[in-house]
Amino acid sequence: MNLNFFDQFSSPSLLGIPLILIAMVFPALLLPSPGNRWINSRLSTLQLWFINLITKQLMIPLDKKGHKWALILTSLMMFLLLTNLLGLLPYTFTPTTQLSMNLALAFPLWLATLLTGLRNQPSVSLGHLLPEGTPTLLIPALILIETTSLLIRPLALGVRLTANLTAGHLLIQLISTATTTLMTTMPVVSLLTLAVLLLLTILEVAVAMIQAYVFVLLLSLYLQENI
Question: Of 225, 212, 226, nearest to 73 (Cα)?
């Protein structure tokens, strides 16, 4: 039984061919392509409004130099948002529950922000490792602590996204299994667990949206420190 609960996180395959690439590309196919007209369908207008809202929120903490990252951050936000939400549908696979994929997204972008700071303002970037006014005896320890906290940032990004989505999917499967099991023996309790399942599903929709936003927002804050 325990193995069955975690089978949903294994990468699906068909005839020995992994389907994770299809699961990653499919969300982009749901976005309507813009046309040549100024005003398109209501869905396109809603899409442009939503992307504009996300871009504004992500660019607020950044100055004009950081606006070059608008396309990357907004595209990453839309990708994570659609992937997380589609993973809540039945009989689907969520690529963002894989720690390897989340680290593959977090590490290069974090490294790019770090290298940007070291190239443009190396003294300021290195100055973050040692707070101003630090006693002399604490300088080696603080440099070690700040360096460790800096290097652990991409790991924290990947683990946070993976843990939150994995925990939510496990809870949904556990409660849904309890609901179907109790339906014949204790129908009243089964109805109660069904109500809990509906509330949990709404909560997981919110978690999927919030975690995508937090992932990209933290990257924008890391970028702010280095520009």
Answer: 212
